[in-house]
């Protein structure tokens, strides 16, 4: 009975190690930034890697119908899978970020504190916060940068 139990545990460990190595090899080919095409518009979803090689799902969606390229409001949502979801809205006019507003965050595990949204320039917005799980606290977040006809989302 004991040998059977140990054997089952060994098989489980080996399977888990193999799944983790496949996930790691697949994720290494992911980009580190999401590039939303403002000319295409609509809702665009991306998978990127943060600085710790965690997979982040980024969704950027157009909130107001297009009048001209790069004009309108866009909701930027980051989903650190299994950890937290956060985002904000940017208002863009003439290829400039005029306003960043409506920040939100939800911790799926742990909690989020000290969230702050700042428009650093007409081309860059940063959303930072402290994410805590147990005794570990990370300063994390993401930024949105406009460049020509693209809106780039980059993990901090």
Short recap of the structure:
The protein is of the alpha+beta class. It has one helix spanning 2-27, and strands at 33-37, 43-49, 55-62, 72-80, 84-93, 96-107, 111-121, 124-133, 136-147, 150-155. The protein is globular and about 65 Å long.
Topology:
Elements: H1 2-27, E1 33-37, E2 43-49, E3 55-62, E4 72-80, E5 84-93, E6 96-107, E7 111-121, E8 124-133, E9 136-147, E10 150-155
Antiparallel strand pairs: 1-10, 2-3, 3-4, 4-5, 5-6, 7-8, 8-9, 9-10
Write down the Rg.
Answer: 19 Å
Q: What integer is the average pLDDT? A: 84
Shape: globular
Structural class label: alpha+beta
Helix-strand string? HEEEEEEEEEE
Distance between the termini: 50 Å
Low-confidence stretches: 5-25
Number of strands: 10
The number of helices is 1
Output the keywords:
five-stranded antiparallel beta sheet, 156 residues, 1 helix, globular, 10 strands, alpha+beta
Structure explained in plain terms:
With 156 residues, this protein is of the alpha+beta class. The chain contains one helix and ten strands; from the N terminus they run αββββββββββ. The strands form two sheets. A five-stranded antiparallel β-sheet has the order 1-10-9-8-7, with no helix packed on it. A hairpin with a 2-residue loop joins strand 5 and strand 6. The longest helix is centred in the first third of the chain and has 26 residues, at 2-27.
